[in-house]
Amino acid sequence: MGKIYLALRIVGAALGWALFFYWWALVLHSPGGSNTHIELSALVLVLVIVLVVCGALLWIQHNRNLARKGRRGEVSRYVTPKFERDYFGRALALPSRMVLLRSAVVNLRIVAHRKIYSKGAPPVEPGRKVHGTAVEEVATS
């Protein structure tokens, strides 16, 4: 998959550049275009290329400076979110992470100003009786 994707990217880039140069050839050989417009277009194109290359070089140098000083991770530190309260300020009561990961269903109850998460029962298949739970019988027609 990776080699095909790379080949498609290279072919797409080559076709894009071929189209770019074809259009410029049309502009340069058109009888309606004046030399002033062509010269201004070329000037703008050169300025844009120079600005993009200079901007990329400055960004690369900035990243190298950060890496040399050993401050790569300090520039924008990721803060692990604390799951203590929801958006409305209610306290969250969560079981352990492993309980939540192993649960196919998670129940959520809101009691007073608390949100309580707990392991839920698996879904009931149609026509199956489940004893000892809220669902005693599922009728099928």
Indicate the topology.
Layout: H1 2-29, H2 35-69, E1 91-93, H3 97-102, E2 106-111, E3 114-119
Parallel strand pairs: 1-3
Antiparallel strand pairs: 2-3
List keywords for this structure.
single chain, 3 helices, mainly alpha, 141 residues
Low-pLDDT parts are 134-141
Give a count of the beta strands, DSSP E runs of length 2 or more: 3
Q: Which whole number gives the mean pLDDT?
A: 82
Can you write the helix and strand succession as a string? HHEHEE
- Order of strands across the biggest sheet? 1-3-2
Work out the helix count.
3
Q: Gyration radius, to the nearest Å?
A: 32 Å
The outline comes out as elongated
Beta percentage is 5-15%
* Helix-residue proportion: 40-55%
What class do helices, strands and sheet pairing give? Answer: mainly alpha
Main pleated-sheet profile: 3 strands, mixed
Distance between the first and last residues' Cα: 49 Å
General description of the model:
A 3-stranded mixed β-sheet has the order 1-3-2, with no helix packed on it. The longest helix is centred in the middle third of the chain and has 35 residues, at 35-69. The chain is mainly alpha-helical and 141 residues long. The protein has helices at residues 2-29, 35-69, 97-102; strands at 91-93, 106-111, 114-119. The chain is 49% helix and 11% strand. Residues 134-141 have low confidence and may be disordered. It is built from 3 helices and 3 strands, in the order ααβαββ.
What can be said about this structure in brief?
The chain is mainly alpha-helical and 141 residues long.
